[in-house]
Amino acid sequence: MQITSSPWGKPQTQHEITPGITQVSTASHGGILVSPELFTTMPSCFQLLCSIEGTWYEEDCEINLVVLAFPGHFPDASIWAALNFLSNSRFGRDLFPSAAEYIDGPAGESLRQRRQSFIDACGHLYTRGSISSSKNGWNASFSRIRDGSTASVSDLQTDEVFGSSIFDLTRFGARVKHAPA
């Protein structure tokens, strides 16, 4: 299905994750459209208001609900990030209290197990946080998956900062500055 409009404007790109779940990006923002048919299969704590075309979930916060409702269609790194948002972020818990309660309860056990497996396998790696441009490229902050300790790296090239969602900072050598513990 070709999507021609979104709450954020005309889609510049779109990617069908699975039939009924399509991710779009626009010049200003983006998100995921869940079809009405698939929407009805979601646990109610992950449902937002549905319309005839489906339900839009914006890419910063609401997308986490889709990831946790349909974990079989997303990588472990996405499950880890969505659980962190809902369980470790006061903002996430306040925004979606019934979803946070769901993931903390028996129904969320398999999600928590996937999160732990990801930490066990990739805990030494980092995720990217904020980025800014500089005269020599990009500056970026990173958080270690295992414990959230932070580091920053300067003078990154575009492919180094945008080429992945998980990073092994050893490849950046002396450009890495670890925050004091």
Labels describing this entry:
alpha+beta; 2 domains; five-stranded antiparallel beta sheet
Note the topology.
Layout: E1 13-18, E2 21-25, E3 30-34, H1 36-39, E4 55-58, H2 63-69, H3 76-88, H4 90-95, H5 97-104, H6 109-122, E5 126-134, E6 137-144, E7 150-156, H7 158-162, E8 166-167, E9 176-178
Helix pairs in contact: 2-3, 3-6
**Structural class by helix and strand composition:** alpha+beta
Radius of gyration: 18 Å
Strand content: 25-35%
Biggest pleated sheet: 5 strands, antiparallel
The counted number of beta strands is 9
The helical percent reads: 25-40%
User: How does the overall form come out from the CA principal axes?
Assistant: globular
Q: Write out the strand line-up for the largest beta sheet, numbering strands in chain order.
A: 8-5-6-7-9
The separation of the N and C termini measures: 49 Å
Q: Report low-confidence residues grouped into runs of 5 or more.
A: none
**SSE pattern:** EEEHEHHHHHEEEHEE
On the 0-100 scale, what is the average pLDDT?
92
- How many separate structural domains? 2
Describe the overall structure.
It is a single chain. This protein is α+β, with helices and mostly antiparallel strands and 181 residues long. It has 2 domains: 13-121, no CATH class; 126-178, no CATH class. The chain is 31% helix and 27% strand. The protein has 7 helices and 9 strands, in the order βββαβαααααβββαββ. It has helices at 36-39, 63-69, 76-88, 90-95, 97-104, 109-122, 158-162; strands spanning 13-18, 21-25, 30-34, 55-58, 126-134, 137-144, 150-156, 166-167, 176-178. The strands form 2 sheets. The protein has a 5-stranded antiparallel beta sheet. The protein has a 4-stranded antiparallel beta sheet with strand order 1-2-3-4. A hairpin with a 2-residue loop joins strand 1 (13-18) and strand 2 (21-25). Helix 2 (63-69) packs across helix 3 and helix 3 (76-88) packs across helix 6 (109-122). It is globular.
